[in-house]
Every structure is written in C-alpha cells, then in structure tokens.
Amino acid sequence: MYVISIVCVLIAAVTAGGADLESGAGYSVHGIKLRSRSDQQLISELQQSVDLDIWQYGLPEGQDTLVMLSPENRVEVLDELDAKGIEHYLHLADVKQALETHAEEVKQWKQQSRSGGAVPFNDYPRYAEVDAYMESIAAQYPNLVTIVNAGKSFEGRDIKYLKISTTNFADASKPIYFMDAMMHAREWVTTPPTLYSIHRLVENLRDQDKDLLEDVDWIILPIANPDGYEYTHINSSTRMWRKTRSVNPEISENCIGVDPNRNFDTHWNTTGVSPNPCAETFPGNEAFSEPETRIVRDILLEHLDRMQVYMNIHSHGNWVLYGFDNYTLPPNYIHLHLVGASMGSVMDTMKLPQADWYKVGNSAMVFYETSGSAQDYGQLVGVPLSYTLELPGYGYGFLVPPQFIDHINKETWEGIAVTARMARIYHQSGL
Ligand SMILES: [Zn+2]
Questions:
Q1: How far, in Å, is the centroid of ligand 1 from the Cα of 80?
Q2: Ligand 1 mean position to 223 CA, how many Å?
Q3: Active site positions, annotated
Q4: Which domains does the chain show, CATH number per domain?
Q5: What are the φ/ψ torsions at residue 33 (nearest 5 degrees)?
Q6: CA of 428 to the centre of ligand 1 (A)
Q7: Shortest CA distance to 29 belongs to which of 73, 81, 68, 76?
Q8: Contact 378, 300 (CB under 8 A)
Q9: pTM, to two decimals
Q10: pLDDT tens digit string along 50-78?
Q11: Do strands 217-221 and 176-181 pair parallel, antiparallel, or not at all (unpaired)?
Q12: pLDDT tens digit string along 150-207?
C-alpha cells in the first residue's frame, strides 16, 4: 500500500487534478459579501462547475464567504461575481507565502514546545504522536479507558478511538457522546480539541466536570482520515488536501480520494457534489466506498441504542449545524437548535476578538443543499443530537497559527461540556 501511495503522490504532483497546489503560487483567497440566498446558490453552483474551493461558508448580511481561487479559475469566478454585482475583495493575496509562513510557525512551535515537554493537544501532532498519546492514556488508565482499533485506512493506517467510561460501557442508563475530527485532512485545528477532551476527562478531571465523566460514556476518534492528514504534512503543496487518499483506477487514473463528508449513505450523490473525481466534493463511486467512512458508520450503528450526541468536527467558520441537508428538519429540531445554540453561546462567551460569532442552524437553510454528510447520516440512523461543528479560523483559514490551539481547546471543551449535560438530561427524560 505504501508503494502505491508513493506512486500516487508523484502522479498527483504532476497533474492538475485534486487539491495539490504545487507550490501554492498564484493561489489567492477572496472574501465574498453575500446579499441573498441566490448569491449563496451561485457559490454552490460555482463549487460544482469550477471546483471552487470554499474555505468558509458565508451568510447573507452576516458572514463573508471565503474561497480560494487558482490561476485557472480566478478570472472566470471573479467575472461571474462582477456580472452578478456581488461585492468581493482580496482576503489573502499569496497562498504560497501563507503556506510557508504557516510551515515555519508550526516548525518553531514544535521545537519550542518539545523542549518544554509539550503535550500533543497543544500542538499539531502527527498521526504517530496521536496514536502514542492514545495508547499511553489507555495503558495508564485501564479502568477508565479502552482503546479500540476500528480498522485500517485505505493506505493501511490503524484508525483508533478511545472509549472512556467509569462503568466500562455497561450502564445502559448513560448516554453516549461520540465526537470525531479530521475527516477533512487540511482542517488541522480539529484534532487538538478531541485530544484535549481526553485530557480533561481522564488526566485532568476537575471537580466541576466530574458529572461528565460519571454520567456520560465517551467515544473519541481524533483522526478519522489519517491518510489525508499525513499527506497534508508532506510539504506546502499538499497542505490543502481535503479528501481521503483512496486510489481507484477504474474511476480515474489521475485523481485520488473522495470527500468523506459526501460519502455517507444519506441522499448520497444527489446534491452539493461533483461527478468529477478530481473535485473537492467528489462523493465516491458508491456510498461508503471509503474505509474511513465505514468505520464512522459502524461506530454510530454499534452504539445507536444510547448514543445521544454525534459531534462531527470540522473547520472553519464558527458554525453549529444540524440536519437535514435537503431542507427537511428532523422531528426534534427544536431540541437540536436549543442544544446547538447553548453550545454556540457558551463558546462565544470565551471568543477571541479575531473570531467570528458562532451561528447555529439547519445546514441547508443557512447554506445550501448537500448530500452524504456524516451529520445527516448520524441523524438519519437515530442519533438525537447530530451536529457538524465548524471551529474558528481566526482569519487564517485552515492555517491557524499554533498559538491559538490552547484557546480553541478550552473554548471548544466548554461547548462540548454543555452539549453533554443537555444530552444527559434528555437521555434521562427519555427524549
Ligand atoms: Zn470539513
């Protein structure tokens, strides 16, 4: 598998397909001021027609959309916006420069923090570091923590999660809280809060959080797409990879990977997807074509009887989103909204000046229709509170400087704690 993947790296580097930026030269990020739903719809159409790379979803009169344009599609996209009278501006002129700055910041941070005895949740740890941390927690706290090797990624990496429980998952009166991160490979800031959650529940349980450990069972999957994540660490040209790294020559000789968050079996391959295997939103040749999404599916299905929350963590844009992606609402949408809003508001009480306010809503109603998302699948199969959480980007998009990690960990933890407490109340009430 590794031989194959090395060959594929070379193929990807010499073709225009996928999200390899070569050096990143000529790429820029633009802000777009949305006025209406039809402006949002235009962005959605461009996403499919020119594989527009959306960095941040926007809201009419609320939050600007951020898109990355390439030398190939810049003129077409900007002309289209101008023709429709949609205001736009240059947000980041030189992605290459930003990638280089980011790489240097991460390198320096690692050097400084390693010499200070750093912990992986205050860093952008590699797959092996996350693996070692999880194994070490499981070994140190055998009465509390079970490590589960759920299966292998396309390239053969073990996908592991921790089960944290004071009763070894045997007490059916407790709700289960499942969170996963790093489904989209470039969203580096998503894994640290999952590791920090492990830390707060196991290594550093505080008095005010004892109920969270006593009354809730936890499943924490820090890296759902390890192949993609490791690929983003190769160099600046691969840093923006989003998809899995699966190879399927019957579908495409040159283009690799599937958007895992379009690969779930819920209205699969209907809207918000591209049939082009090179595109960022390619949903795969069938639902659950990817081992990575099958693993998440199996966790959901195995624990459905008492799973109350599924938190699918992404970045960026400060959103708490719930289903369904096709404009219909789950029967419990009022509770979904209430809990999502509770989460957003508690995180907003800690927000940094650079961050946007959290916004909460149905994913289709605040953006536009998509299909095949993890959030929708969780809701569809019966998890009462299934969310997409989009963490802050602080104006840096996916290239959040590591200095922000500590804050994002603490802020996100408070949001997770609120949702866990609400889930416990609902579970006990039979809701
Ligand atoms: Zn994402």
A1: 26
A2: 13
A3: 390
A4: 120-232+268-429 (3.40.630.10)
A5: -90, 105
A6: 32
A7: 68
A8: yes
A9: 0.92
A10: 889 999 888 898 889 999 999 999 999 99
A11: parallel
A12: 999 999 999 999 999 999 999 999 999 999 999 999 999 999 999 999 999 999 999 9
